[in-house]
Amino acid sequence: MKKLFTADIHLSLYSNDRLIESVPERLHSAFHVLEQMARYAKANGIKVIEVAGDLFNDKSLLHTRPFVMLTEYFNKWKDLDFVLMSGNHDLDTTADEQISIISGFGNIPNVACVVKPYVFDNITFIPYTKNIAQDIEEAEGGDILISHFGLNEAQIVPGMSLTSNIRMSDLKKWKLVLLGHYHLPQLIDGKGTMVYYTGSPYQKDWNEKHQEKRFLVYDSNTLEVESVLTDGYRKYIELIIDNDNKENAKDILAEAKQQRANGHHVRVRNKTEEVIDESDVFVISEKEIDITNRGVEITMSTADKLRKYAEIKEVPESDISEYLKMGIELCQNS
User: Fold this and answer.
1) In this predicted model, what pLDDT tens digit does every residue of 45-83 receive, in sequence order?
2) Whether residues 300 and 259 fall in one domain
3) What angle, rounded to 10 degrees, do the helices at 64-76 and 25-43 form?
4) Which of 74, 200, 78, 224 is nearest to 144 (CA)?
């Protein structure tokens, strides 16, 4: 039986985003890809959509708009069945006994909520909890594991891994492992155990620039997995001008303008000594400047530090606000 698999949608109010059709940009992107998934499922005879955690973003805080929009979405696609599993962002963190926001959808007829380890046919579902490593260890194993955690051998961003107490060796008792948690789409071949991170289905911020986003379709009988790219959302695009390509600077800036006209977030990193005066594109100059003792103090707020650094790096005043927004966002997500 074929099923559609996704994770890390991170619904939130995103009140500081620009509005698209009266909806904040990232919330609009999230529901755009959710609609794409439902249409794909219908067109290809798929009856089940599984969400492996972090359907919501703000842990103990639930916003009205995304909750209502999601309820309407489930009601719109009544002939599809949805399986929702808790991720770390779906949990109330204010008490020792963690409560999942996912359980709030349990009364919708076509929605199944998985907040505790559960086995259905040949699939083991293990939602995120503070005891997830123990739950993985105690599970019997089988054909398929669906869960939400960081794996020691996986990458959180390209070229960077985090130490985790769950390793590939802990997953050998399953043939196919489908995971949420890390936003970078990736496949890890465990020599008998294939591990897929589907990744987030749209680019959420600059940390995910240039990543091809997707959802997965897998066959629970054959264990075959297919990757389907998502599209139609506003992407994060970074172009670089350096000493190797500075002769093509005009073409690179023209591409940046075109991508921005297409609605995407665009920035250009200038690594040359050339001064690029371009009002239509956000250009970051990365020429070496000594910032020692230039007024950046440890006691400053993050915003004040970034503003001072922008002044040192000679960022045009017209670009300061966008620079600060990106800098603060990167600091919050690091």
Assistant:
1) 999 999 999 999 999 888 999 999 999 999 999 999 999
2) no
3) 10
4) 224
Helix (H) or strand (E) holding 242: none
> Structurally, how many domains does the chain consist of?
3
| 47 and 23 co-located in one domain | yes
From CA 145, how far away is CA 168, in angstroms rounded? 13
How confident is the model over 149-178, as pLDDT tens digits? 999 999 999 989 999 999 999 999 999 999
| 282 φ/ψ angles, rounded to the nearest 5 degrees | -80, 115
| Opening angle at CA 84, ends 135 and 211, nearest 5 | 95
Residues 47 and 168 in one domain: yes
| Tokens coding 89 | 């962002």
* pLDDT digit string, tens, across residues 254-279: 999 999 999 999 999 999 988 888 88
Domain enclosing residue 327, as ranges: 289-334
Predicted TM-score (pTM) of the model is 0.83
User: Are 52 and 148 spatial neighbours (Cβ–Cβ below 8 Å)?
Assistant: yes
* Sequence-distant (≥ 6) Cβ neighbours of residue 201 within 8 angstroms: 6, 8, 9, 30, 33, 34, 37, 213, 214, 215, 230
CATH number of the CATH domain containing 127: 3.60.21.10
Whether pLDDT at 196 is above 80: yes
Cβ-based burial of 111 (10 A; exposed 0-12, middle 13-18, buried ≥19): buried
Task: Take residue 107 and report the two structure tokens written for it.
Answer: 């009364």
pLDDT in tens, 111-145: 999 999 999 999 999 999 999 999 999 999 999 99
